[in-house]
Structures
1.
Amino acid sequence: PCPAYFLGDGICDLACISCVGEAADCAQAQQCNPYCPDSYIGDGECDDVCNDAACDNDGGDCVDVAMAAACGPECPA
């Protein structure tokens, strides 16, 4: 079931793709992946749904987070 506010919101929600109103969102979507709204890319916050190669690790937002996690406590702040 799709919440009514998902339909026609400009974001392609794959769980709702068969619903009337959502197909238009998905046809217009230029998103790097269907779960990552363009507004999330490069907004300074690492969004897990955008942290993939297609979305360039959330426009670079997740690169520093991944590097810090890999480096551990000895990394400079």
2.
Amino acid sequence: MLLLHSIKRTFFAPNFFSVGVPLPAQKPIINNWPCDPEKTMVAHKTKTNEIWSYGSGYGGNSLLGKKCFSLRIGSAIARREGWLAEHMLIVGITNPQGVKKYIVGAFPSQCGKTNLAMLTSPIPGYKIECVGDDIAWMRFDENGVLRAINPEFGFFGVCPGTNHHTNPVAMDMIFKNTIFTNVAKTSDGGVFWEGLEKELKTHVSITSWTGEKHWTRDSGKPAAHPNARFCTPLVNCPILDPHWNSPEGVPISAILFGGRRPEGIPLIYETRSWKHGVYAGASVSSEATSAAEYKGHKVMHDPFSARPFLSYNAGKYIEHWLQMEKDYRKMPKIFHVNWFRKNKEGHYLWPGFGENIRVLDWIMRRCDNEPIAVESPIGLLPKEGSINLEGLPDPINWEELFELPEDFWKREMNDIETYFNQQIGDDLPPAIREEIENQKKRLGISK
């Protein structure tokens, strides 16, 4: 402790970590995962930049430089110094005309952040280059341009659902210098998780993450934990952006918010202003995933996709975002996307994955103010035909994809307002209450 006190705190963040199982272990270690769940504690002292983690072996709590420092401590430092520490991907996109723009995107865990950061375009002429898939530190430079860096040195991605169809870039990079947690093992020395069924060699047996030998689909339990992870260095990424380690950061043209919403929310809309965009970010909701503490299909509010990582009052957090807007700054456009809308039969309306390049292309064109948007009560929607749909394997129901059902939006606005009142209360900035009232008026919702 004397060493910690002798180091200047402005340059060093002291961290303490223990899984809480000193050797020799006094009780059985379940699933080879040493931890002390009855006494788990993860504490952040934002004034001194300290992190204390005891009893948990989960990556988000044990990789202390990740969520603990880069987001929880990081956001507190950012508030003091006037910048943003966010749960966001950073990606560069070059279109067939050679124009390159960088975007950042905030999505709850397991909602496609890594897939978007490593997107493989099925349309020739587009180039995707990844800066990071999870955390962005952003600051406006002396010219008023928002610039972003990735404070991480690797990827910590979800394994289930990752395969050569959904994310070929990730598959190319994770089979060297990579640590896997809670995945299944194959008899030939490989790894397995749900989503790799079509890539599994014949006559290979599987041992599940819990140690069940000769696992099959009939076992009644998944082979890998739903939140099984890979951890691999950035330099493994074959599409790593040449400016990934640039200290000044990359210039940001657009900010994306989104979640996993099966109904009511259109594929994409552009917000009307920075204030409207902050409202969109603050009102993000998504179906709970295995990375969240609440499971099942409950739709959870997740402001800025950072709810588990907020280190101070949520109302003040929103106010901090509002204060970013200055007359001399070139404010990025803010968009909301939803890759997960379904039809009445429960089928996805949009193919997602690499086909999302079609939406990113529309975003890039809107950043240049191309007249390809139409007004709607919730923001600017794409003009019909303005998103390239050529070459898609199945026809797209444009009307259903962008429909704004009246009954849904009445419930949605009531739910948003109730959440803000109950969870943020008087700390909610007046500007956000104004945005709520404006949106209700545009939707024709009376008080």
